[in-house]
Amino acid sequence: GAFPVVVITKADQAESAEQFVSQAAGLSPGLLVEALDARDPVEVAVLRPWCEVGQSIALLGSSGVGKSTLVNTLTHAAQETRTVREDDQRGRHTTTSRSMHRLPQGGWLIDTPGMRELQLVDVAEALDEVFSDVAGLAGQCRFADCTHAAEPGCRVRAAIENGELDAGRLRRFQKLQSEERRNAETLAERRSRDKHFGKLYKSIMADKRREKGGKH
């Protein structure tokens, strides 16, 4: 599987990058976070372990977060870069298609356009694995269908109250669960519609063949 690394690309613009590193690291236990100036080859060198022969890396993130700048530094190239808009702090789309770059160290880098959203589907087991701490606690709740809101005997709420679990982590888990269920339902509906259309098409074609046969 993929090994995630959060790269804070504009650490030079922050008074204290450690605050952002701490926030990002809190997203998941053991998550690796690197803070650097994407324009500085010396600082970007910390990413070399993922750039060697046999390694493939993909840059994912919203527009304007510094992906193209990071590509330039890693590949010693010169892609166009743009700033973040002042009015809404959203990035302008500079990269409009996926591209693959050979890295000097021998690895490969995949650059992608800025993401507006990432829709999950059929990843229920993966969510339980990524949020194994939350899922493990949920398995200890008194009720199997506990929503971790106000039910008695909720092990998850108890863990939050005693500082064992961060409340934000539970919110992220539940949000992704909700998104996964919603997308799964949408996918099922689409498959059902496509199946129905396929049957209708076959029926129409069969009728046409019968009509042609009757004319001879």
Give structural notes.
With 216 residues, this protein is mostly helical. The protein folds into two domains: 5-111, no CATH class; 124-215, Probable gtpase engc, domain 3 (Ribonucleotide Reductase Protein R1, domain 1, Orthogonal Bundle). It has seven helices and five strands; from the N terminus they run βαβαβαββαααα. It has helices at residues 17-25, 41-44, 67-75, 124-130, 132-138, 155-161, 167-215; strands at residues 5-8, 32-35, 56-59, 99-102, 108-111. The strands form two sheets. A three-stranded mixed β-sheet has the order 3-5-4, with helices on one face. The chain has a two-stranded parallel ribbon with strand order 1-2. A hairpin with a 5-residue loop joins strand 4 and strand 5. Helix 4 packs across helix 5. The longest helix has 49 residues, at 167-215. The radius of gyration is 24 Å and the shape is flat. The relative contact order is 0.09.
